[in-house]
Request: fold
Amino acid sequence: MSCIDVIQAREILDSRGNPTIEVEVSLESGAIGTAAVPSGASTGEHEAVELRDGDKERYLGKGVLKAVENVNEKVAKEIEGMDALDQRAIDRAMINLDGTPNKGKLGANAILSVSIAAMRLSALMENIPLWDAIAKRTGTTQQAPRLYVNVINGGVHADFRLPFQEYILVVEGNTNEALPIAHEAFTKLGELLRTHDTDVPMGDEGGYAPTFDTLEQPFELLASLVAEYPGTSIALDAAASELFHNGAYQLLGKSYSADELLAFYRELVERFPLHSIEDPFDEDSVTDFIRLTAMLEDFSTPLGAKKVLVVGDDLTVTNPVRISQAMKYKEINAVLIKPNQIGTVRETILAVQETYAADCKVIASHRSGETDDTFIADFARGIGAHGIKAGGFGQKERLEKYDRLLAIEREAETR
Ligand code: PGA
Ligand code: ZN
Reply:
């Protein structure tokens, strides 16, 4: 038995400078598993609860001392003495201890920190890399994920300088081959943007945050990069819930009905080499998702790309029940997976299995508020994800993920 001995959580700051939770879980043998949880800004309505203190005098109410206390007292009391190899039992015990449907009592941030640290410890105890342990738990074949590099940040990640949240360059191939291409294209894009405006800030996810006059301009720019770099394509995360006000979508000062937005997406896939569109409509506008997915199902792009994916994020929130529903009604054909939307590793694995059972693709994702924790890189590799969203190259927390993907590739080659 690898008995959990001590659990110690503390408050740290994430890439936005907001408090988040870091934990150390140690075994009687002295082995230590650590974890730090990320935090979203464009969070879905149906996500598990991120517990924050609400004390306006401290970090404007964003402190996580209650979540830290929940780990150090309630969770520790329940989990200490349990076998670190039994993830299912550990996650189940925390879910039961919380007792709410959305982890609102202990906080999904509190629960996930311990869940990830336990997963790390079990890989350590089995003496296998983390990605391998994840593959075994999920029953998947490990594989290098495509890089989804968020090169232009908009929406809530960049004070709405652009309406859509993420303009992504997708790069095919192993990380070793894809990363230098992605980096060169990113640098080139920076040069192109600075010819229009010398002062281009960075957004929350380490991509550029420029402004444009029309909705099409960023796509034109990215299409020019795709033409220059073979094996690349464009992905969009519209994060449309953030644009939806009084029944219409607000884009660059103009109001779009769902029909008009659908027509805009059709024009996009006709004109540009699009790979996927994430959260194209408000998270509760299910019939609009269905219409777009049906439209793209038998649409072969003039640019010869494969079927354009429709990805659920705020729609599905890594929740196995919501994913199964979305699959049943063909709302989407790919799912974004973010462990902190649901709050345990075990449920995240179930979400992946649910997606694969419907023969749909998984894209593993970081959050806009990140830490140095690279769990998502191992997770993406272990589940054989179609892609990984890990941000742009302008922020250390994003680079850590890419460095870990490179290290994983070396580990995989020598096994
Ligand atoms: P978030 O953004 O982490 O702010 O939710 C990421 C996404 O929407 O994919
Ligand atoms: Zn998203």
User: Anything to note?
Assistant: The longest strand covers residues 4-13. The pocket of 2-phosphoglycolic acid (ligand 1) is lined by residues 40-43, 165, 237, 239, 313, 365, 367-368 (CB under 6 Å). The chain has a mean pLDDT of 96.
